[in-house]
Design goal:
- Two copies of one chain form a homodimer.
- Chain A is mostly helical.
- Chain A is about 65% helix and about 5% strand.
- A three-stranded mixed sheet of chain A has the order 1-3-2, sandwiched between helices.
- In chain A, a hairpin with a 2-residue loop joins strand 2 and strand 3.
- In chain A, helix 13 packs parallel to helix 20.
- The interface between A and B is large, with 41 and 40 residues.
C-alpha cells in the first residue's frame, strides 16, 4: 500500500508531462488546420518548418528516458487498479506508445519526413501530368524506408508493425483471410447489381448553389448532434477533422455546385469522426487517451453516420421534405424513393472516394493486397501500375483511363508510406455494421427514431459505449465489449444484402 | 583567422536553435490569433494551457546554458564582423535577450503569468460592474510582482528595467523631462483649440454598413501597400497585428456601423505595424532579428500611417471621391474640406483609444506618471482612482463618469504589469513625426505623391531605412541613422502646430 501511494505523485508527473507533449502536438495540428483554411500563400515555407519543429520537440520530450523510468516506476500502481480505470489505461497506453516510439531512431524519422515532403510534391506534379514515371523513384524510396521502419520492430509479416501503428492488434494473418472472404462474397453481389437495370441518378447532378448546400448541411449536422459551441466547420480542398481539445473539434468540407452528394455526405462523414472526438470523456482531456481507439474504429464512426444513417431511407423520410423546400426547382419532380435510390446507386467506377458502399471495399482491398505484395518484395514499384490496372479489370471490370485516375489517385503511398494505409477503411465499414447491429439489437427504437429526426438515442448509445472511452480499449477489446463478438464480416454482409436487395429488387446471395 | 572560421559552425548552430525557439513562439501566436478569430468557446480552457506550454518550452530552450556558451564562443566571430552585419547583429541582440532572460527565475515567470490570468479575468468583471475595489487587491499584487521583476536587474530608476523590456535604451531620466516638456507645450495648444468653435463631425456618425466599410478599407490598405499574398485581415473585438513569418503577417479589425472612423483608422494603424513586419529583410527570416526594433519604433509606423498619412489632407484628396461614391447618401452633402476637418476634430475626452492626435499624448503621460508614482511607492493602489481623476481634471478638464471609463479603461495594468506599459505610445507619436519629417526632407515628393494615391515612394523609403533592418538597430540607433538627430519632441510639435493652425484657423504657440 505504501508503494502505491508513493507512486501517485509520479502518476501526476507523468500525466502533466504527457499533457505538455500533447500541447505541442495540438499546436502542430492547429498550424496545419490554419495552413489549409486561412493561411496566405506567403506563409507556406515557414509553416512547414514550424510544424516540423513542434513535432520534433514533441517526439524529443516523449522519448526522453525519464518517461520510460516513470512508466517503470508506475507498474505497481497500475497493477493495483482496475484495467479500465483512467489511471491504469493511461499508463498502459502510454507504455505501448513509448515502447513503439523509442524503437524508431530520431534521425530516421527526420530522414523519412523529409523524403515524404519531397515525394508528396512530386506526386502532385506527376498526378497533374498523368506521368507515374516521375514519382516512381520516390515511391521506390518510400517502399525502402517503409521496410526499414518495419524492421525496427519484431514481426511475423513485414506489414504488421505498420498496420499496428494505426490499427493496433490487427495483423496480416487476421486481415488477409477476412478480406479475402469479404471479396469473395462481394464480387457476386456487385455482379448481380450491375447486371440489373441501372438507377437513374441525374437528379443529383444539377446545379446546387453552394450557399444553400452549406446551409442545409449545417442544419443536418446540428440535428445529428455536432456541437457548434465546441467545434466549427470551414472549407478546404480535402475535407478532414481535427481535434484541438474535447471542446474544440473542427471539420472541413468542400462543395461542388454540380454534385449534390459530395458536400453533404463528406460533411456527415467528418461529423461522424467529430462526434467521436467531441464525445470523449472530459476526464481524459489533455492526455493521450483523448483520441479515437484506432483507425478502423474512427472510420467506423464516420461511415456509420455517413452511410448507415445518412444514406438510410428513414433519414431521408425525415430530411427530404426540407431538402425539396430548399431546392424546389431541382427536386420537386423527384420522389423520396427516387432520391433514396439515386444516392445509393451502385456502379463500378475507377475512383475509391467516389465509390458507393457496395464496391468501396473492393477498391480498398486492391490497395491492401498491392501494399502487401510490394512489402513482401513480390511486386516491384515499376510494375505497380500494371498490377493495379489488372486488378481493377478483375474486380471492377474496368481499366482506369490513366495513372492519375489509377495508381496515383490516393495520396497515401506518396505522402505517407507503403503499409498500414488502407485496411482501416474496410475495417471501418465492417465495424460500423457490427456496431450498428448491436445498437439496434439493444434498442430497435434506434432505427425508428432516425425517421423522426431524432438522433439522440443512437448518439447517446455510441457515446456511452464507444466515444467516452477514447483510447482506453483497443479496437478488438471495444468490438467485443460493445457487440459481444469478435470482428466479423457477417453484419456488414447482412446490411448490404438487406439494403440492396430492396433497392435493386434482387434476391442477393445469402451469407452462409 | 582560424578561430573565426571555427566559430562559423557554432553560428549556424545558434541560428538554427533560435529559429526553432522562434517556431515555438510563433506557434503560441498562431494559437492566440486563432483564439480571438475563429476558435469555438469550448476551446477556451485547453487553449490557455496550450499557449502557456509553448511559451514555457520556448523560455526553457532559450535559457539553456548551452545558448550562453554558444554566445560566449561566438565573441571573436562577432568582433570580426561589421556591427550591422546580420551575423554580428544576431549575436549581439541574442546576447542582450539571453542576459535579460536568465535573470528572471522560471518559477517567478510562472507565478506572474498565473497571477496575470486571474487579474485579467477579475478586471473584465470589475470593469463591467464599474467596481475598482474588486480588482484593487490584484493590482496591488501586480505592483508587487512588477517591482520584484525589476529587482532582478540593476537600475537607476525602478521602472527602467521594465521600460527597457520593450523600449531598449529608454530610461526614466530620458523620458521624464522629455514628456514633461511635451506636456507643457501641448496643454496651451489644447486650451487654444478647445476654446475655438468646435468642428461639426456628425457626418461620421451616420449608418455606415459593415460590408461597405470593409470593402473600402480593403481597397485603401491594398493601395497603401499591404500585401494580401503575405497576409490577411480578419475581425476581432480588439484589433491587433501578428506576424507568423515575414510571408504571413495578419491584421484584425472591428467595425462599428454607427461610426465611420473606428474601423478605417484602426485598420490603417494595424497596417502600419504590418508593413513594418512584411518589410523585414528575408535574410532575417526565422531569427530574433525578424521583429520590430522596439515598442516605440513599431508604434511610430502605425501612427505614421494612421495619422500623418491617413488623416492628411492629401490622402483624402485622393480617396474622398471614392468614399463618397460608396456612401453617397451619407456623404454627398459633405465636402472634402468638411470631411477632413471632421476626422481631425480635437476634443477633451475620457478614453485614450478614442482620443485625437493632439490630446492623445496627454492620456498616455497621465498613465506614465502614475505608473512611476506607484513603482516609486509614492502612490498606493487604493489611491489610484482619485489620482487618475485629479490628473484628468487638470490635463483634460474632465472627470471620468466612473472607474470603468477612468482608471480601468486600459487592460495593461490588469493583464500585464505596472511599468513600461505606456511610454511606447507617446514615443511612437514623436518618432513618427521625426521620421516623416526626414522622409520629406529627403524627397519632398513624398507628400505630393500621397495626394495622387501613390504610396510607393514613402513605403520604399521606410522599408529601406527602417523596415528591412528588423531588430538590428535599437530605437535610438535607428532614429539617429534615419533622421541624423537624437529623439526630440520638436518635429511632433511642428507637425501639430502646422496642421491644427490650419484646421482651426488659429495661430498656435510656436516652439522656441
Amino acid at each position: 500500500m505504501s508503494t502505491i501511494s508513493l507512486c501517485e505523485p509520479k502518476y501526476l508527473e507523468l500525466k502533466n508531462r504527457l499533457t505538455q507533449i500533447q500541447d505541442l502536438e495540438v499546436a502542430a495540428c492547429v498550424l496545419n488546420w490554419d495552413q489549409t483554411t486561412y493561411m496566405p500563400t506567403g506563409g507556406t515555407y515557414a509553416r512547414g518548418r514550424q510544424i516540423a519543429t513542434l513535432k520534433e520537440f514533441a517526439h524529443e520530450k516523449f522519448t526522453d528516458p525519464s518517461i520510460g523510468e516513470l512508466l517503470e516506476d508506475l507498474r505497481p500502481y497500475e497493477k493495483s487498479l482496475p484495467y479500465d480505470s483512467t489511471e491504469a489505461s493511461l499508463i498502459r497506453v502510454t507504455r505501448r506508445d513509448y515502447e513503439r516510439a523509442i524503437r524508431i531512431p530520431s534521425e530516421f524519422m527526420a530522414k523519412f519526413s523529409q523524403h515524404q515532403a519531397v515525394s508528396y510534391e512530386t506526386w502532385v506534379k506527376a498526378k497533374s501530368l498523368k506521368d507515374f514515371s516521375l514519382v516512381q523513384p520516390y515511391l521506390e524510396k518510400t517502399l525502402e524506408l517503409s521496410r526499414e521502419l518495419a524492421s525496427f520492430f519484431p514481426y511475423k509479416h513485414i506489414a504488421d508493425p505498420l498496420i499496428d501503428f494505426v490499427d493496433e492488434g490487427m495483423t496480416v494473418s487476421i486481415l488477409r483471410p477476412l478480406f479475402n472472404e469479404l471479396r469473395q462474397k462481394l464480387l457476386p453481389i456487385v455482379e448481380a447489381i450491375t447486371s440489373a437495370p441501372p438507377i437513374e441518378d441525374s437528379c443529383l447532378y444539377q446545379h446546387y448553389p453552394k450557399e444553400q448546400q452549406l446551409k442545409f448541411g449545417h442544419t443536418v449536422i446540428e440535428r445529428i448532434g455536432f456541437d457548434f459551441q465546441r467545434g466549427r466547420q470551414d472549407e478546404t480542398p480535402h475535407p478532414f477533422t481535427s481535434s484541438f481539445s474535447i471542446g474544440d473539434v473542427r471539420i472541413t468540407t468542400r462543395v461542388y455546385e454540380d454534385n449534390f452528394t459530395e458536400a453533404l455526405f463528406s460533411t456527415i462523414h467528418e461529423v461522424g469522426h467529430a462526434l467521436y472526438e467531441q464525445g470523449i470523456s472530459l476526464e481524459l482531456e489533455g492526455t493521450p487517451l483523448a483520441e479515437g481507439s484506432s483507425s478502423g474504429i474512427h472510420e467506423s464512426q464516420s461511415r456509420l453516420w455517413e452511410n448507415i444513417v445518412g444514406r438510410s431511407r428513414g433519414f431521408w423520410e425525415c430530411f427530404y421534405p426540407q431538402l425539396q423546400g430548399i431546392f424546389l426547382q431541382q427536386l420537386s419532380p423527384v420522389s423520396v424513393s427516387e432520391f433514396y435510390r439515386a444516392i445509393n446507386k451502385v456502379a463500378n467506377s475507377p475512383i475509391r472516394t467516389d465509390a458507393d458502399e457496395v464496391t468501396y471495399n473492393l477498391h480498398v482491398m486492391i490497395r491492401f493486397d498491392l501494399e502487401l505484395a510490394m512489402l513482401e518484395g513480390k511486386l516491384a514499384v515499376q510494375d505497380l501500375p500494371e498490377a493495379w490496372n489488372e486488378r481493377y479489370k478483375t474486380d471492377l471490370g474496368l481499366v482506369p483511363a490513366n495513372d492519375s485516375e489509377g495508381v496515383m489517385q490516393d495520396v497515401h503511398w506518396y505522402g505517407d508510406m507503403v503499409g498500414g494505409m488502407f485496411q482501416g477503411y474496410t475495417l471501418g465499414n465492417l465495424i460500423a455494421a457490427q456496431i450498428y447491429e448491436a445498437a439496434v439489437k439493444f434498442d430497435p427504437e434506434v432505427t425508428f427514431s432516425i425517421e423522426r429526426g431524432n438522433f439522440t438515442l443512437l448518439h447517446k448509445w455510441l457515446k456511452h459505449n464507444i466515444y467516452q472511452h477514447g483510447r482506453k480499449y483497443t479496437a478488438n477489446e471495444l468490438i467485443n465489449r460493445v457487440t459481444g463478438k469478435p470482428l466479423s464480416i457477417d453484419p456488414f454482409m447482412r446490411y448490404i444484402q438487406d439494403k440492396y436487395s430492396n433497392i435493386y429488387h434482387l434476391k442477393l446471395p445469402i451469407v452462409a
